Amino acid sequence: MSVTAGRGGGLLVAGTTSDAGKSVVTAGICRWLVRKGVKVAPFKAQNMSLNSYVTREGAEIGRAQAMQAAAARVEPSALMNPVLLKPGGDRSSQVVLMGKPVGELSARGYHAGRQEQLFGTVTECLEELRRTHDAVICEGAGSPAEINLRRSDIVNMGIARAGRLPVVVVGDIDRGGVFASFFGTTALLSPEDQELIAGYIVNKFRGDVSLLEPGLDMLRDLTGRRTFGVLPFTHGLGIDEEDGLRVSLRGAVRESVVASPHGADVLRVAVCAVPLMSNFTDVDALAAEPGVVVRFVDRPEELADADLVVVPGTRGTVRALAWLRERGLADALARRAAEGRPVLGVCGGFQLLGERIEDEVESRAGVVEGLGLLPVRVRFAAEKTLARPVGTALGERVEGYEIHHGVADVHGGDEPFLDGCRVGAVWGTHWHGSLESDGFRRAFLRRVAQAAGRAFVPAPDTSFAALREEQLDRLGDLIEEHADTDALLRLIEDGVPAGAPFIPPGAP
Questions:
Q1: What is the DSSP letter of 255?
Q2: In 3-state terms, what secondary structure has residue 504?
Q3: What pLDDT digit, counting tens, does each position of 214-268 carry?
């Protein structure tokens, strides 16, 4: 791939809406390019997500960018997601800059000035990636036509204009109105921004493409811009989600192996859908096991037939604790513990299972009584713990990552469990991602099945890493088989095409 000396090619994948498929398309392009021998990196200037990841250098970035880096077969870096916003409520977020938290800001405060102050950092990161890679595939956020936020935009047309990046807009046709969305998105941009819009990608199409082609021809006549591909609706293609209640691998694995348990029984896992739930991707590895059925729940009666209940991470431990009590889930968890029925708490879920929480950082609620199911006292520290620990549990090697302000004082228990403990059938740890370690996951599920009285046997050959690679290859196949890859390669290599017409009215 020939590129300008000292500066790799680039592309921005924007979307008509949130969840149009930007993350999937970006990952797919990265995997397609790396299979062609192109040194490629993903980039998202600003991400808003409660699902995050810790890089080897101890930086916190969005999990979607970590998975896109895996698609590109490069090590994740803070350069790939310099600004991460972690919502702490409806109106405020923790701002993570270059992998480290720098404070809490309201949405108004962020868009009123702080965002523009970060623009220099964002452009420097993009340029560093372009100096060290043949191509950088950037992902936008929401829609580039958010006209109320355009002046402070650093993730869509702001970064595209700064880097002279051609832009491809993805639209989800399964929602309907994709032609209006493509046209309206383009027509609401200023002439300078419209100049960068190279064309469109239709996502999640069902049916006969020949029936769509007249519309694509009309769209080209109306906008002067081509469509670079029509991607079919395919189950199980989501990568680690930014927000929402999807289990990213569950769909893909369910179609192939989960319907046939290895043993006589299935194992039912209920995940408490606590407020501000974070890194719920932890349960993907459970869902990858043949015979394990995972569902999210928010009522106590939904715990009755569960063989394992998972209390996941949360950005609001005290708030989640109150929510569990209000809904009767706290009492249901206590009954499970008394009956010796398995419960697993991860990170914030581990903290609220303890005796006491002292929080002057996250909720500023002071001392709050926990559920008292584990001999743990938690104090929230101002400095966030970001780590990639390695250890042993249940006789198996375990790798994980930590993202938390809470410092746990474990003063008892039947046995240690990673950095936490076990009491009876209640387990707790700060470690995210531990269940991705195959041997440990199987050992843990055997213990759960024994406690639950289920004739469930973990499959001996399930490799979570291999399943993830298969999924990323499927994303690459999607681009290679259903997009005009020659045209995309020219776009990445040559930059913004000349001569695209202005579509009135433009930005108001």
A1: I
A2: coil
A3: 999 999 999 999 999 999 998 766 555 554 434 443 333 333 344 578 878 999 9
**Rounded Cα gap, residues 62 and 84, in angstroms:** 7
CB 273, CB 296: distance < 8 Å: yes
Q: What is the mean pLDDT of residues 44-71?
A: 94
Using the Cα atoms of residue 58, residue 135, residue 225 and residue 26 in order, give the sign of their dihedral.
Answer: negative
Q: Enter the DSSP assignment of 406.
A: E
Pair of tokens at residue 199: 């064309």
Clarify whether 432 is annotated catalytic.
yes
Calpha distance 280→258 (Å, rounded) = 19
* CB distance 60 to 75 below 8 Å: no
- CA dist 402 and 385 (Å) reads 7
Residue 213, CB half-sphere, CA atoms under 13 Å: how many?
4
- CA 369 from chain centre, in angstroms, equals 31
The letter for the amino acid at 350 is: F
Q: Which of 272, 347, 404, 482 is the catalytic position?
A: 347
Of 133, 404, 405, 432, which one is the catalytic site residue?
432
Taking the model in full, what pTM does it have? Answer: 0.91
Question: Catalytic: 404?
Answer: no
Tokens 């009522």 identify what position?
299
Residue 468: phi and psi, rounded to 5, are -65, -40
Q: Helix (H, G, I), strand (E, B), or coil: what is residue 392? A: strand
Separation between Cα atoms, residue 419 and residue 378, nearest integer Å: 13
**Pick from 6, 85, 102: nearest CA to 44:** 85
* Nearby residues of 465 by Cβ (< 8 Å), 6 or more positions away: 436, 438
Secondary structure class of 125 (helix, strand, coil): helix
Q: Which among 66, 68, 41 has a CA at the least distance from the CA of 130?
A: 41
